[in-house]
Amino acid sequence: MDTLELTKEKKTKAATENISGSEAVLRAFVAEGVETIFGYPGGAIMPIYDALYDYHEKLTHILVRHEQGAIHAAQGFARVSGRTGVVFATSGPGATNLVTGLADAMIDSTPVVCITGQVFAHLLGTDAFQETDVINITTPVTKWNYQVTDATEIPHVLAKAFYIAGSGRPGPVLIDITKNAQLQLFDYNGYEKCEHIRSYRPKPIVRKEYIEQAAKLINEAEKPFVIFGQGVILGKAEKEFQKFIEKAGIPAAWTILGMSAIPTNHPLGVGMLGMHGNYGPNLLTNECDVLIAIGMRFDDRVTGRLDKYAKQAKVIHLDIDPSEIDKNVKATVPVWGDCKETLPLLTELVHQKVYPQWLQKFNDCMKKEQEKCIKAEMNPDTEVLTMGEVITAINELTKGDAVIVTDVGQHQMVACRYAEYNSSKSNITSGGLGTMGFALPAAIGASYGAPDRTVIAIIGDGGIQMTIQELGTIMQFNPTVKIIILNNKFLGMVRQWQELFHKNRYSFVDIQSPDFVMVAKGYGIQGKSICKREDVKSALKEMLDHNGSYLLEVIVGKENNVFPMVPQGRGVAEVVLSKDEI
Ligand SMILES: Cc1ncc(C[n+]2csc(CCOP(=O)(O)OP(=O)(O)O)c2C)c(N)n1
Q: Which of 58, 111, 280, 414 has an alpha carbon 20 to 30 Å from 271's alpha carbon atom?
């Protein structure tokens, strides 16, 4: 052997280390820039937790109180930061407790990598203690899942996991690792990030002819209307989007997940779409001549009855996921691509325009909404407080700079309609799945994803009780989360439907609650309960000024309803402003 060969051999040997599968998992996390893991240990993931013992300087682990809390926290982290959230859970019940969060992350395109422990490979299929077939259980709710039974696979499987979770249309990935693979020692040759997978094309090649066709339709339009979703935020294309609408002068409405991509007070921003969105965007969807849908998927909560949806309009649909195009609404011009790339191309080709009369129609609708809904909601003569009053007071105090995480129900719809935002990634909510229990853990995760921002969780008295145990996570790790419970003493949204569509037959919506302030106190969290209008601002101020987490309960009207509303089974233009119009 000559000298050159000797040096080569030494180098290879020096670069190869004998490490465990568990150690390889943690090295992958560090290489991917992970800093925070949300998790809960158990038998089948113990070797990974054992390796984690030595990683406290590089990785922070937040011990949640339930695995559902871990995945929602990872989702909150991801949504507010634009990075991938990471979760650890054990096999069996640990893994199955992740399923709701996976489904939520899947439908809301949230990048999350979950590592679950699994029983030893030789026990697979034997109904071993805490064995569940997590791969089959999670297949429909993950963008990708994979079971590792041999440690040598770990570096490249994790590289693929992070790449798949975060690229193209993001989503959750679950990697199940058998205990023997976690313990197995193997020759480790370093970690290489994945940048390409054969047969997976996250970034489509943009076809210019479609951009040209889209621009032509827009330039010829008299009443163009832009509707946009979270794709703008996920594509990090907020600036490109704003430039596009500003040059083309087109009014733009957001879906619940697209909210905050542009400041809510943008002169072309005309409000929120959807069943409980604003009046104008719903009504005028059926009046525009060209509908430009950007990074949104025509969810049924947005379209109402499809056979009555925007039939008069030519539809341009920009989306990164080809399976969304023509799925619910046929596109006249499909623009398959990353909106960070397609929007600048389109902006170049559209004419600089304004549509004052068309925009005025949206403003007129807002005036009508103001008269019929908002005035009632803000009426200072009524005895009971309304949710809208609380959200408006939050706006005054935070000036639109807070991250607002909402749970699911009436408070969610009111918060999303009233909340004001100055910057992107500020409205975090469970949109597609509508998961009660999402907000508290998601707000915990958001506070790690945006440590310099004020994070406010707005939750109903029902939803808080689904994941209330995560107050324990706050107690132990001290993230700052301001929790507001809007307590109407009902499962409000279901009650509203029972009132409006089931002849007032209130069937099991009357939910009792504990003394929330006492519960918070039990977890070492300061709190207060108020029910009077004159206390709202001072209580909110006290909550915001308090150093650390705080729980504020606001007792609101028991039977207040949320309007506008597109009743189920109706078209968007049948949006109503009050109960008498149903
Ligand atoms: C996990 C889960 N279970 C059930 C539902 C159905 N659901 C939607 S809204 C709602 C009521 C929510 O009540 P609350 O949390 O008090 O909020 P409110 O509507 O009163 O603001 C229910 C039960 C759901 N969305 N998620």
A: 111
Structure token digits, residue 368: 């009508």
**Three-class SS state of 228:** strand
Task: Tell whether ligand 1 has an atom less than 6 A from the beta carbon of residue 101.
Answer: no
- Closest by CA to 208, choosing from 108, 342, 364, is 342
Please give the structure tokens belonging to residue 432. 């597609």
Alpha carbons within 13 A on the beta-carbon side of 75: 34
Per-residue tokens: 174: 């679950």
Say how far apart CA 526 and CA 518 lie, in whole Å.
Answer: 9
What atom in ligand 1 is closest to the CA of residue 486? Answer: 21
pLDDT at 10 over 50: no
Q: How much is the pLDDT for 6?
A: 44
Residue type, 153: E
Is the pLDDT at 1 greater than 50? The verdict is: no
Give the Cα separation of 440 and 463 in Å (integer). Answer: 9
Q: Quick one: how far is CA 487 from the chain centroid?
A: 23
* Residues with a known catalytic role: 67, 129-130, 179, 493
- Whether the predicted pLDDT of 202 surpasses 60: yes
CA dist 361 and 236 (Å) reads: 30
Between CA 164 and CA 172 the distance in angstroms is: 9
250-282 pLDDT per residue, tens: 999 999 999 999 999 999 999 999 999 999 999
CA dist., res. 13 & res. 337, Å (int): 45
pLDDT (0 to 100) of residue 65: 98
Give residue 76's pLDDT: 99
Helix (H, G, I), strand (E, B) or coil at 530: strand
Query: Are residues 551 and 483 in contact, defined by beta-carbon separation less than 8 angstroms?
Result: yes
217, 333 contact by CB (below 8 A): yes
For tokens 């109180």, name the residue: 65
Which numbered atom of ligand 1 lies nearest the CA of 492?
A: 20
Look at residue 505 and tell me whether its pLDDT is greater than 60: yes
pLDDT tens-digit profile of 32-87?
999 999 999 999 999 999 999 999 999 999 999 999 999 999 999 999 999 999 99
Distances (CA, A) of 149 to 137, 142, 155, 478: 18, 19, 13, 37
431 Cβ below 6 A of ligand 1: no
Q: Is 409 in the pocket of ligand 1 (CB under 6 A)?
A: yes
DSSP string, 529-548: EE--GGGHHHHHHHHHHSSS
Long-range contacts of 306-313 (CB under 8 A, 24+ apart): 308/570, 308/571, 308/572, 308/573, 308/574, 309/285, 309/571, 309/572, 310/285, 310/286, 310/572, 311/286, 312/286, 312/287, 312/288, 313/225, 313/285, 313/288, 313/289
Contact 44, 115 (CB under 8 A): no
What pTM did the predictor assign?
0.97
Residue 335: Cβ within 10 Å count = 25
| Residues 299-327, mean pLDDT to the nearest whole number | 97
Whether residue 90 has its Cβ less than 6 Å from ligand 1: no
Ligand 1 pocket test target in 414, 429, 436 with most atoms within 8 Å of CB = 436
pLDDT of residue 4: 46
Mean pLDDT calculated for residue range 535-549: 98
Residue 411 has pLDDT above 90, yes or no: yes
